[in-house]
Amino acid sequence: MTVLVRDFRAQDAGGFAHVRHLALPFMLSTPESILHDVAHAHPDAHFRLLVAEEDGELIGTAQTGIVYDSPQAGQGYLNVYVHPERRGRGAGSLLVRTAEERLAEVPATKLFAWVLDEPATRAFAGQRGYRASRSAHFLRLDLSNSPLPPRREPPADVELRTAADFADDPRPLFELDAETLMDEPSDIAHEFTDFEAWLKETWHHPLLSHELTSVAVVDGRPAAFSAARTDGGTRYGTVMTGTARAHRGRGLAKLAKSDSLHSARAAGFTEAFTGNDSGNEPMLAINKWFGYEICATEVQHVRELG
């Protein structure tokens, strides 16, 4: 049997999403979201998808690109996932080698890759020259059975809204998202200033639920938010929860996330997912308070390109 790696085609979207779901069931992905990511990626991101095939069957995926909104040039990434029942056939090695060659042409000078915290996958990364760096947890909450802490009334000067209320002018949400992103624990610095790119990549993303994204508003301006995504079925995930620097310490992030979670359960969603850097103790404590439990851990690995 022969394994080959090639560029992604539109007709691969279903197989790509299927392999990603089997390898990483804690992240929401659909064929529509994958096609959207490809169609609306920023030109400077050099975003590229690769697939591995074995006798016509799609068995592996790679997502590659450059972190274009970083002040540090040449920060590249590759995230490789192989069908759990098709490992050991060389698909992962071939995907990594091909992705590295493409990124070197861009050119990238440093590569970042997330690897599941398992002996085999960590060894795979180490054998290819990648060193372990920071880790992050995936967390899951059973919305169908686990009780949620009751909603609490917002302070007198705080109003709870949804992202749908900002449909006519989402720029205030962009500004809040950009500010909180800069403070996210990461090995890569971000300076997100491109509003038009944010509209394409985030605001109009097919997984983003404007109705379930909750926003705490103070004096008419968004002060905290919890951004929600859904997969069109029963799975819901919060992909970013944060508070503007001027309003931290008031519990507004917890307020927004509570509002979003209660709305998601009322809408019939049965599973909630989120992710946290393992060093982000305040957010991990908030998620533990809601009842989330760690279901998997990834470790970011780094390799310098000479």
Characteristics:
alpha+beta; 2 domains; Aminopeptidase; 306 residues; twelve-stranded mixed beta sheet
Please provide a brief summary of the model:
By secondary structure, the chain is an alpha+beta fold. It has helices at residues 13-23, 31-40, 91-105, 119-127, 171-182, 195-203, 252-266, 281-290; strands at 3-7, 48-54, 57-66, 75-82, 110-116, 131-142, 158-162, 214-218, 221-230, 235-243, 271-277, 293-304.
Structural summary, described in words:
With 306 residues, the chain is of the alpha+beta class. It has 2 domains: 3-108, Gcn5-related N-acetyltransferase (GNAT) (Aminopeptidase), CATH 3.40.630.30; 141-298, Aminopeptidase. Helix content is 30%, strand content 32%. The chain contains 8 helices and 12 strands. The protein has helices at residues 13-23, 31-40, 91-105, 119-127, 171-182, 195-203, 252-266, 281-290; strands spanning 3-7, 48-54, 57-66, 75-82, 110-116, 131-142, 158-162, 214-218, 221-230, 235-243, 271-277, 293-304. Strands 1-2-3-4-5-12-6-11-10-9-8-7 form a 12-stranded mixed sheet, sandwiched between helices. Helix 7 (252-266) links the parallel strand 10 and strand 11 (271-277). It is globular. It starts with a strand and ends with a strand. The relative contact order is 0.17. The model has no long low-confidence stretch (mean pLDDT 95).
